[in-house]
């Protein structure tokens, strides 16, 4: 499979932007989606308050098989009283892995902030060796990816994240293998941001709820209509989160948000896997884009 250089064109606000990328094409790809191997340019495409990771740049192509069983995270056995499903806020509140943080009262009582306090050794029980499903992508695993239960980052990305916030993450060495069992050529880590936010939607009447809904052109917990409205309009919340470099929503451990400074630092360091979605509507999003904006 030979990469060929191409130019992809995107249109935004009536200007043409030419984005050079390496595009792979082959009848033997694991998906009929275009496979775009990113060439990072170190630049931020759109100013925003929060940059939300909502999917891998290699969605439809990069996947892994777990080679051993491991417990689910966060564990709820013994916490749920026999119930099969429990509220994420209930898990965060009762799990020994998280501690509640004091939130300023002007943010509103519907928001809660928890901090993951577990050590890397405690978290290591929840991961397992992973075998890549398509060997030809083994040399193209981006610096930021995700595979349940956690995010996946390269050694370079880990170093930058630790520079940004030395105490803000848990990193666990990732055992990634090719189809013949050999380790991949690059070093990666499972990544969990320690800061977790949760929004409990008030019991608004329908007409009141309609006033607090914002639809964004990407998916994931940050794009839930009432959450995205809060992140866009709640000035006290925006001020509070401005000091948190990266964080996750509830118990979703594979999607995360960055503040503007953290995202700019990661882009300047040429970390791959952080391709911005600059579309106005979800239908316009390219499959290789992984970052949504909250302005």
Can you tell me about this structure?
With 295 residues, this protein is α+β, with helices and mostly antiparallel strands. Helix content is 17%, strand content 27%. It has helices at 88-94, 120-123, 155-164, 206-209, 225-233, 235-241, 260-268; strands spanning 4-12, 15-24, 35-37, 50-53, 64-66, 98-101, 111-116, 130-132, 144-147, 150-154, 169-173, 176-177, 188-193, 195-199, 246-249, 257-259, 291-294. The protein has a 7-stranded mixed sheet with strand order 6-7-14-15-16-4-17, with helices on both faces. Strands 9-10-13-11 form a 4-stranded antiparallel sheet. A 3-stranded antiparallel sheet has the order 1-2-3, with no helix packed on it. The relative contact order is 0.21.
Quick description:
This protein is α+β, with helices and mostly antiparallel strands and 295 residues long.
* Radius of gyration over all CA atoms, rounded: 20 Å
Q: Count up the helices.
A: 7
Mean pLDDT across the residues is 82
Poorly predicted regions are 1-28
User: What is the chain-wise order of helices and strands?
Assistant: EEEEEHEEHEEEHEEEEHHHEEHE
Q: Percent of residues in helical segments? A: 10-25%
Number of strands: 17
Shape designation: globular
Helix and strand content put the structural class at alpha+beta
Q: Could you describe the largest sheet, including whether it forms a barrel?
A: 7 strands, mixed
Q: How far apart lie the N and C ends? A: 40 Å
Which strands sit side by side, in order, in the main sheet?
6-7-14-15-16-4-17
- As a percent range, the share of strand residues is 25-35%
